[in-house]
Amino acid sequence: MADSRPAKSLAIPLAAFAVGAVVALLVGVFGKVHDPTLAGTTTFGFRTVIDMKVVLSVVIGVLALLQLVGALWLYGRLGIGAPSWLGTAHRICGAAAVVLIVLVAYHCLWALGLESGTLRDGEPVSTRTVVHGILGCAVIGAVVVKIVAVRSRRAPGWFLPVAGGLLFALLIGAVLTSAIWYIAARGWPGSGGYG
After folding, report:
1. pLDDT at residue number 195
2. Alpha carbon distance 26, 30 (integer Å)
3. Which one of 48, 51, 83, 160 has the fewest beta carbons within 10 angstroms of its own beta carbon?
4. To 10 degrees, what angle do helices 159-175 and 127-151 make?
5. pTM for the complete prediction?
6. Where are the alpha helices (DSSP H) in the chain?
7. What are the phi and psi torsion angles at 147 (to 5°)?
8. Could you give the CA distance from residue 32 to residue 137 in angstroms, rounded to a whole number?
9. Do 42 and 89 contact (CB within 8 A), yes or no?
10. Rounded to whole angstroms, how far apart are CA atoms 139 and 75?
11. How far apart are CA 29 and CA 16, in angstroms?
12. Which DSSP category does 179 fall into?
């Protein structure tokens, strides 16, 4: 009897990482050459685009943590059996996170661009801002890698957890250098802090 399982191929993760890197680079180039504008953005009822991005970024961070716990639970790493509904909840949570990531990334790139060097007023761009911009571009590339990992049946078994771990780490870094920094510096959006 022949083995009906597809052969595992290292070409899939290598191609996914290459495509993800190209996507991250292209997003960064767009962010650098695009002239930032608030035209074409929305606040979804928040006071400002920044307030909206902060709140949605916190939601993305929570969803990322739920994804991590869900994955560990599904793969038996928590020591307790996963309920039957968990797989569906994990997929819905992941899809919601991707939609929010794309929404926030669009608003970051469109309204703010990718900043480095000096601002128009001659002030240097902060290291936090540069790191956040690079992490944000890398997140978009990592989303591409993760989607390939989830959809591929011929990739090696290590590919999905590595892709998920990479996306998780980049997302947490991006959230820490944006929303969490903002909340620590200015308070929760709309709470009466400055800005």
Report:
1. 41
2. 6
3. 83
4. 150
5. 0.89
6. 11-33, 49-74, 86-111, 127-151, 159-175, 181-186
7. -65, -40
8. 11
9. no
10. 24
11. 20
12. I
Residues 113-154 have pLDDT tens digits of 898 877 667 788 899 999 999 999 999 999 999 999 999 999
141 within 8 A of 20, measured Cβ to Cβ: yes
Residue type at position 126: S
d(CA 45, CA 99): 18
Q: Whose structure tokens read 């601002």?
A: 119
Can you read off the two tokens belonging to residue 149?
């990992």
Sign of the four-CA dihedral 55, 58, 64, 68: negative
Side chain identity at 72, as an amino acid letter? L
Instruction: Tell me the domain boundaries of the chain.
Output: 23-32+47-179
State the Cα torsion 66-72-74-75 to the nearest 10°: 160
Separation CA 129–CA 131 (nearest Å): 6
Residue 120 CB contacts under 8 Å (≥ 6 apart), including other chains:
none
Tell me: the pLDDT tens digits for 11-28?
999 999 999 999 999 999
Kindly give, in sequence order, each residue whose CB lies less than 8 Å from that of residue 192, ignoring residues fewer than 6 positions away: none
